Amino acid sequence: MRLDPAVAAVRLAVRRALEDLRVSDPVPVLVACSGGADSLALLAATVFEARRTPWQVVGVTVDHGLQSGSADRAASVVEQMAALGAHQSVPVRVEVRPSGQGLEAAAREARYAALADVAQRARSDVILLGHTLDDQAETVLLGLTRGSGGRSIAGMRRRSPPFSRPLLDVTRAQTEAACRSEGIDFWSDPHNDDLRFTRARVRHVVLPLLERELGPGIAGALARTADQLRDDADALDAEADHALSELRTPRGLVVAALGQLPTAVRRRVLRRVAVEAGSPPSELFRVHVVAMDELVHSYSGQRWVELPGHVRVTRENGELRCRRTGGTEPRPPVAG
To answer: What percent of the chain has pLDDT over 90?
Structure first.
């Protein structure tokens, strides 16, 4: 019997993503599973690819508690993951606290933290996420609307340990076709169709409009753009890392040397030290980094710059210094 092309595409994507795993030990491979087509297709493919290896496939479903009946939904997903062949099926309940950020961002932060905790307890450094090419396209469009720079429109990373996204070259239509071919019933999250959420509007209104007006293939073009920009951003990030190691002093950064760096590198350095000092990455915007930059190249006696997270940046004795001024402990950065 001929293998369905969609099933083959998902399996191939998973196989390539796991090629760098050591197969001499029973490595736990975690698969985040919501019960939707993307994550169920990912789990089924991972179980298939692991059948001749020592990999232990652990399915993890996170209940955010945001919808009526979410606990029952999580229990159903646990049963479904076991039926698909996962060696273990783990449910996790989290509490979502927006605390100044949107509900989507807060839920993502809680989910990633919970997944990382399960991975740590399982002694695993691999968590597979079911983001597809369509999700990548939506992320790029959202980054464009925020005007947050090249990194924000470089989309999601394929690998940001412990997280890995094998399906970024696979479409949502392919994951749904794969599920249908394998007889896997999948759930459609009502939040994905709720136009109160920005991502839902991008998915159901903006992208279809672009497809109608500019022609088909927009999602693929946006995803390719993300790949190209990510290569550029990675190169600049590496240069910024090197510069930071050269400019750092026990108290801050040498202003004179900072001023000699290209703007793109210098502002990356400034963002890094702000995050290190406790400014939440999700709340640190371009306007904040530009204000920091002005302390370097347009200094006229400014006293300081206040950043999100109760972080203050000052210029003292030829150095740029970042320090926390109070508030709660900083939240760890969330992988994107």
So the answer is: 59
